[in-house]
Structure formats: C-alpha cells, structure tokens
Design brief:
heterodimer; A: alpha/beta; TIM Barrel; 8-stranded parallel β-barrel; two-stranded antiparallel ribbon; 12 helices; 11 strands; 38% helix; 14% strand; B: alpha/beta; 8-stranded parallel β-sheet
C-alpha cells in the first residue's frame, strides 16, 4: 500500500510532469480494466428531513429550509420522469432522519423504484445490519456512505449532533452493509473538510480493510468537493483541480478495479477530462432537491449542493459518444436478492 | 474461416469443434465487454468470423430497445450469456433462469466471482451451479481456475466444456497457468477453452499449440486501437496454433540433441527403425 509520505510527496509536487505521468498511468489502467465505458446514474432525493447537525450540509437540522418528504404518488412522478431519460441506475437519497424516513419508508420507496430502474442504491442514514438485510432482500443493491473525514477531531467539530456525530458507528457502516449482503458499497471523503493527505490515506486503509474482509462486494469511491450552500457557517480548505485530479489518479493506480464516481457538482470541463483517466461512473441530468425533477419550480428548490454540470442525460450521452466512450445504462439486473451464506 | 482455404496444395483435415452436439469451424470466441462502441463490436465479430459470442446478462438492456447490444450480434452467431455479477451458485442459477425466461437460449457460461480485487472464479460454487443447470438442460460452459479435480467434478456435473483461465482476467498476461491447463487438455475429455488473460494473438496461438480446443478473448480486442483488426489477428493466430498442434509439433528439448543419434551405430543394419 502507498504510504502517507508518498501520498504527501505526490500531492505537494508542483511539477506538471508528475501530474501528467500520474494521469498517463491512471488512464492506461482504467482502459485496461474498464475499457472505454462509462456508467451513468442519477440521484433522486426522497426527503430532506434531517436530525443530524453537520455544519457543511444544506440539509442540516438547524438550517431553515422547507422540509419535504415524497409521498408514494410523488415518487412515481419523479421516478417516471428520470426513467424516461434512459437512466437505469438510481441513487435514492434522504437526509438522516430515523423518524421521518425509517426503514419502512425506505422499503416503500424501493418497491416503487423497482418499477422504473434495474439497479437501486441508497444514500441514507446508517443502519444496523438487520435493517440493511431487510432492504437488501427488498431489492437494494448498493449503499453509499461517506465517512466525510477520517480525522476524528475534525469529525466531531463538523458533526455536532445527531447519530452522525458517532464516528465509530459511521466507520463500521460499510461493514454492516457488507454483512447484510449488499452488492455494491461506495465510500468517500468530503474534500475540503480536513487534511487531504491524511484523509486519503485513511480512506485507502478503510477500503483495504473492506476488500480483505468482504471481497465479494463491488467497491467504488467518491471525492465530493465542498461547495457553497445556503447558511453554511464555517471555512473550508479548497482542493484545487490539480490536487483533485491527482487524487483520482492515485486512487486508480492503487485500486485498479475500484469504481470512481464523479457527480455533477464538478464542472463539465473537469468531468469531460476526468473520464479519460480514472472516473468510471458519472451522474447525469441530476437534480439535488427533493421533488426537483417534476414537483417544484427551480426558484423554490433547496438543493443539497449546487450543480455545476447542468447537461441533460442526452447531452452527456452525446458527449461520451463524441469522446469515443460507450455510455452504460444497464450494469445490473435484479435477480431477486436472497440471503447468502458466508463461507 | 476454413483452414483448407489457406493453401491450394495442402488439404488440412481438421475436425470441427463440437460443443453439446453443435459444430463450429471457428475456434475463436469473442467477449463483448469494454468496447468503446457497438460498431467496433459488430466489426470485430465479422472480421474474426467468431461463431460464439459471450454477453453478460447484466449488460443486456431488456427495457430500452435502442442501441441494444444484441442488435449487433448476427443471428447465426451462438449467443453465450454469462453470469457475470454472480457471487455464488444460487445467484448464477438465478441469472441463468432469467436468461432462459428472456428468450436468450440455454447456453450459459458460468462465472461465479466472489472477489472484486482479483476476480478469480470460485471453483466450488461453479461446480454446484453446473450441477444444477445441467440437470435443467442448460448447455453449461463453466469458467474456472485450472484444477484437475475441479475439472473432473465438472465432467461429472454435466459441463459441456471446461474454460480454464490463462491468467488474471483482463491482464493480457497470457498463459501463466500453462502447465495446469496442459493437464486439463491431457486428462479431460471435454473441449478445453482457454479464457481470460489472453492479450496477444501469439498467446492465443500458444494455447492452441498445446492442444486447447478454442480460445476466448475480450479485453485485448475491445481496448485495441483497431479492435476488428486484432479480432481477425486472434482468429488467424488461433488457426495457426491449431495447425501447429495438428502437425504434431517437434517437442522442445532442454539440451542440444545430436542430429545423428549416439547409439545409431548399434542399429546400422536394421531398416525397420524410424530415423528422426
């Protein structure tokens, strides 16, 4: 495994040749393991109720935004709209409210989702293994859960209250999901919260631990960079584009088969380049507000984060084809999840 | 391509490759993942003359009907759907059932992988899935790590072929497992199709020279600058390797061997001895 010192050396090396060489190696590995294919997905926000207070997040419990939770009828409306764009991989998101969006609500949402999409992932509050198992058996394929930062002290500073303030419970979440049988698990760090070198190294260690103990899971990682939100109240350390690209390349070189996701919070220019050397899955035509696709006019929306890449799914597909990539909509097929015996 | 078209003065007698009673003259199988567009795939199938093409069920778009991968595979090509994504026998069986229900025939390549880092096949689970699916009248082509005992179990379980990996999937490292594949070729009375890790036509030729019945390649072709050209090169190399095998190649020797045998003088007057 790459050492902390090596990561630091690379991230602080200002020689453009270092970046170029990293990108060349990373591109080579990406093409070998993924070919020229890019998977597409879209996020769909079910609720923005949240009982955690995370200082950087637009949905946090103290923020004065309109709280909404989609009804089943509204879910149909939103999902039908997204499905018509061709998207088959859906990421369902909520704030972290155990009372407003409990497992029973999520199960209901998954039941609706199965009518429209072939692969269902959740980015919701961390749960216990039994709850993950229930959702897995109900048809959930993937869980996304970011530690945000692995720096304990900083973690406590920015996750002030709510379940999310429990560092250890969150750290063990991917493991609980894996134990429940979940097929795809996505880890990540929120770039800008803390020292990037330390966070990246800790993420790699987390990933290595998961790979070793739960080898059957398909892993992916994300590196969201902090963006402006309504009511944000603390300073961040900016991660520039060069460092960001280096992080993607380093990850690809050290984890050749791990998926790397990139959301629409990044600019079209950066996204169009990043797919050349490491990123393998991108969101398209995204809206990050509850009911944002069909239910609420743009001026009334409270997005979790602002979108930089506003291109539609069709425009993203067009871009991919022009750049000689095959856009992949279908990468999984529901086969009826069952309990698996661990050997 | 028919071997006999290679030369006008030499007719080569070769038997077709027979899998579950179906006859194939082309011994190159092409995988369909990782292509940058489906046109490249279609051209690669055509250029190589591949008669068996593998597709992952997870990549078949059953709902959307535009740009479906199946539209690019000619009807006369045998579709071999694989169980990519299955982590155990149960999941492989469920995928096979979906394949049949969707009307994609009963040929199934079992891929059970429960390790996302090395992507090595789980032989034990593969045997279980083969047993179940063969009983259900599927034509089962299991993908394995080359192991003689496993291959024997697969024969008992009703497999139609055995598909040992040459090296890590997608690695282009060639026949790293050569000695063990050779054991399967020598001991197992089913077609042995070398699958995974074959990155260069020369490696495919090598597999055929040692007696493999066919070779499957995917990543190398899909990620080449000109996929159709490489697909054709693979088909030709496989044919060349096959001819080499049929020719009863000279055996490689560790030491120099004298062209006049050391003990030849003992048999100087014996005309029944065949001279090398």
């Amino acid at each position: 495994m790459i050492t902390l010192t090596q990561i630091k050396q690379i991230l602080t090396d200002h020689n453009p040749n270092t970046t170029e060489n990293l990108a060349l190696e990373s591109a080579k590995i990406t093409r070998q393991f993924f070919g020229r294919t890019i998977s597409l997905y879209a996020p769909l926000y079910l609720s923005n109720f949240c009982s955690s207070y995370c200082t950087y997040c637009g949905f946090h419990s103290h923020n004065r935004i309109q709280r909404i939770k989609l009804s089943v009828e509204e879910m149909h409306k939103e999902m039908s709209y997204v499905a018509k764009t061709g998207i088959e991989n859906i990421l369902l998101l909520t704030g972290e409210s155990y009372n407003v969006t409990p497992t029973s609500y999520l199960k209901e949402a998954v039941d609706v989702t199965k009518n429209y999409f072939t692969s269902i992932s959740l980015e919701v509050h961390p749960m216990d293994t039994d709850e993950y198992r229930e959702l897995y058996l109900n048809g959930v394929d993937g869980i996304t859960v970011y530690q945000e930062t692995y720096d304990r002290e900083r973690y406590q500073e920015v996750h002030v209250s709510g379940v999310k303030s429990n560092y250890d419970y969150r750290y063990a979440t991917p493991e609980r999901a894996a134990k429940a049988g979940i097929r795809q698990i996505s880890l990540g760090i929120l770039l800008g919260l803390s020292d990037v070198t330390e966070d990246l190294y800790a993420l790699y260690q987390h990933l290595c631990y998961m790979e070793k103990n739960y080898p059957g899971v398909e892993y992916s990682v994300s590196f969201p960079r902090l963006r402006t939100i309504k009511g944000r109240e603390f300073a961040i350390c900016d991660i520039d584009d060069i460092t960001f690209i280096k992080i993607i390349c380093l990850t690809r070189i050290h984890f050749p088969r791990v998926g790397i996701n990139l959301s629409t919070r990044e600019s079209p220019k950066l996204r169009d380049h990043a797919i050349e050397f490491g990123v393998t899955k991108i969101s398209a035509g995204s809206n990050t507000s509850v009911g944002g696709y069909t239910l609420k006019p743009e001026e009334d929306q409270d997005p979790q984060f602002d979108i930089e890449d506003k291109r539609s799914v069709a425009e993203i597909v067009q871009m991919l084809k022009e750049k000689n990539f095959d856009p992949v909509f279908t990468d999984w097929r529901p086969i009826g999840n069952e309990l698996t015996e661990r050997r | 391509m028919n071997p006999s078209t290679l030369t006008t003065s030499l007719t080569i007698q070769d038997e077709p490759l027979i899998i579950a009673g179906k006859s194939f003259t082309n011994r190159f199988l092409l995988g369909t993942g990782k292509f940058k567009n489906k046109k490249d795939l279609a051209e690669s199938i055509e250029a190589s003359g591949a008669e068996i093409v593998t597709v992952a069920l997870r990549r078949i778009d059953l709902e959307r009907h535009e740009d479906n991968i199946l539209e690019y595979i000619p009807k006369n090509v045998t579709l071999l759907v694989n169980t990519s994504g299955a982590r155990n026998a149960k999941e492989a069986v469920r995928i096979a059932h979906l394949v049949r229900e969707a009307g994609y025939g009963n040929w199934i390549k079992i891929e059970v992988i429960n390790d996302s880092k090395y992507l090595l096949p789980d032989n034990a689970e593969t045997i279980k899935a083969t047993e179940i699916l063969s009983k259900e009248n599927f034509v089962v082509l299991p993908y394995i790590y080359p192991d003689l005992y496993v291959a024997r179990e697969l024969v008992k379980a009703g497999a139609a072929t055995v598909m040992p990996l040459g090296s890590f999937i997608g690695s282009n490292q060639g026949l790293k497992a050569k000695e063990f594949i050779q054991v399967l070729i020598d001991e197992i009375d089913l077609p042995i199709i070398v699958d995974a890790g074959i990155g260069f036509p020369s490696q495919a030729a090598e597999a055929m020279e040692i007696g493999a019945d066919a070779v499957l390649a995917n990543t190398a072709v899909a990620t080449a600058g000109r996929p159709a050209l490489l697909a054709k090169a693979f088909a030709m190399a496989i044919q060349a390797g096959r001819l080499g095998y049929l020719s009863k190649l000279p055996v490689k020797k560790d030491l120099a061997s004298p062209s006049s045998p050391l003990t030849g003088f003992l048999y100087e007057n014996d005309n029944t001895i065949e001279r090398r």
